[in-house]
Amino acid sequence: MIEISGGTYEAPAMSGVVTKPQKASSATHEAYFLEFAEMVRGLVTAPLMVTGGFRTAAGMDAVLRSGALDIIGLARLLAIDPEAPAALLRGQDSQQRVRPMKTGITKIDRMGIMEISWYAQQLKRIANGGNPRPHESASFALVRALVSSGWGTFRTRRLRS
Questions:
Q1: Residue 94: is its pLDDT beyond 60?
Q2: For the stretch 97-130, what's the b/e string if a residue is b when 16 or more beta carbons lie within 10 angstroms of its beta carbon?
């Protein structure tokens, strides 16, 4: 299987920051990397998976039926709705929506750090047996991550001395 996903912190497709204009055909599709996947499809026979940008059951179904890819990866949606796959298999959209997290500070928003912190905290909550909090403040999650990270760094230094 070949999986296509991601972006970089300089061009974080996963946080909705567009660094170059999209073709009209790409903008009508939900997947961030569908155009690239279609190009790869012509070169490989391995199963092809795309993660990133899918929003609706209908959009996912249409892309799968087109043959452009074989598997759709869900990442952030699972952090806020662990039951989403069951709904999607029934042809229903998730009740939750992946949304961009923005501070209004361009440099921070382009790094995607607030989104990464927010979604990581949702996953940690689920891993600890809790429920995600899809309406939790992203700014609060960022502050909590910075405080937690700072304390962890301080504790590590104390252990070394």
A1: yes
A2: ebeebbeeeeeebebbbbbbbbbebbbeeeeeee
First to last CA, the chain: 47
Name the band, by pLDDT with cuts 50, 70 and 90, for residue 9.
very low
- Buried/exposed code over 66-85 (b: 16+ C-beta within 10 A; e: otherwise): eebbeebebebbbbbbeebe
Inter-residue contact 57 to 39 (CB < 8 Å): no
What pLDDT digit, counting tens, does each position of 96-140 carry?
Answer: 988 777 777 787 777 777 788 888 889 999 999 999 999 888 888
**Coil, helix or strand for 14?**
helix
* Domain residue limits, the chain: 1-98, 100-161
pLDDT (0 to 100) of residue 87: 93
Question: Tokens at residue 143, please?
Answer: 């502050």
